[in-house]
Design a protein that fits this description.
alpha/beta, 93 residues, two-stranded antiparallel ribbon, single chain, three-stranded parallel beta sheet
Length: 93
């Protein structure tokens, strides 16, 4: 993960994995240096998420989700499964 982040300049991670592997992927993203993790996956075992959330929190990173459609800043960026066509920049953009 660290090599991929260094090579790509990525600053966020999105998790689309099946529930049994999603919590480990969240931890791996944080270990790889990505401090914004968006998790689309639903149905992650509760105890797995408790551990993953605590790990993210201790690291000072941010976790959006699990079971969310992602984040969007219309006209600027998107992380997730939100359809860009239904969003537009607001008057403060």
């Amino acid at each position: 993960m660290k090599r991929a982040v260094a090579a790509s300049g990525a600053d966020a991670s999105i998790i689309f994995l099946p529930a049994p592997w999603a919590a480990d992927a969240i931890v791996e993203a944080v270990d790889g240096g990505l401090c914004l993790v968006v998790c689309i996956t639903e149905g992650i075992p509760v105890l797995d998420m408790v551990k993953a959330y605590a790990y993210v929190h201790r690291s000072g990173c941010r976790l959006i989700g699990p079971n969310c459609p992602g984040l969007i800043s219309p006209g600027q960026s998107k992380v997730g499964i939100l359809p860009q066509t239904v969003f537009a920049p607001g008057r403060w953009a």
